[in-house]
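Input chain follows. Return structure tokens only.
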Amino acid sequence: MNRITMVTGAALTLAACGADPSEHETQDLPPVAVTATAAWHASSEASHPARVVPLEEAEVATRMAGTVDLVAVRVGDRVSPGDLIASLDAADVDARIEAAHAQLELARRTYRRMENLERDGAASTHELDQARAGLRSAEAMVKEAEAQAAYVEIRAPFAGTITARMADAGDMAAPGFPLVQLSGSGVKVVAELPSSLSGSIVVGQAVTLETDRESIAGTVSHVAAALNRASHRFQVEVVPSAPEGLLPGSFLRMTIPEAEGSTRWIPSDAVVRHGQLTGVFTVEGETLRLRWLRLGRESGGAQEVLAGPAGEMTVVRGPSRDLRDGQPVSAVTLVEAPTSAGALTATQASNTFDLGEEG
């Protein structure tokens, strides 16, 4: 009982004197010089896989059946509109045209004979109409046969590069059977985005295309108005500002600013961890303060701050285990922060100052 009374009495004595044990602890801490960076704001971004595809692409096919007589191009060849790509054996077509012309000549003679007979009253008007109809049918057969001749030669519908060849001389071709694959000279970037972004992506919006070598600016040129039934995603097309070097079939990443706007970031090397807690030492006046934070994504040596102290915040870089909350600061060396979270390339500034000096 006496021991408890003595402790209580000591506590009352401290309270009466206005003393705080924590103040005595911080007064015993030596001042430290620190390197610090001010937290910065950066637009929140999301990255999505995308692929490079030609602006124009077609599987060039024939509209008639026949034997392939010639394939005039190889993979990698460049063609202009109207250039010959392939041709079919024309023997059947030539025979069909010859037969159609013979039928036309017969129909003309029949019509002239019926016309003379009808004029002399030896043939009825109905018989003349039948002869006229036969002539028109023969003329149509000639046009149809001659149209088939145009299908014998398969020509390039647009300028581009042959990217695949599916037929050789001697192969049998059928209507719709692809002979070669043709890709146009221009490219675009296509991405399948999640439905959660539907409505937030608009034509004309700026995006960034990331390859293994460089970053390229791009502009959204088309947004699909419907979701894919299987994937529940929608397609977005982007025109790159510098398409040189982007090969059709290659993959890259498309970075799109998200609608949530700006978020706060700090250097990753400023974060301290105590068990499940994460925090930073901040420079507040001439004192260090340990502030607890809730962190989000990490990118390029920077950490997103989801929750923490409001207002500006200058955090200590690489804090040692000896730092304590409330420790006095003797000098601060500021390291400039980047303007985005993805590229922490801060430069050492020559603005080290002594907090003990005024002015």
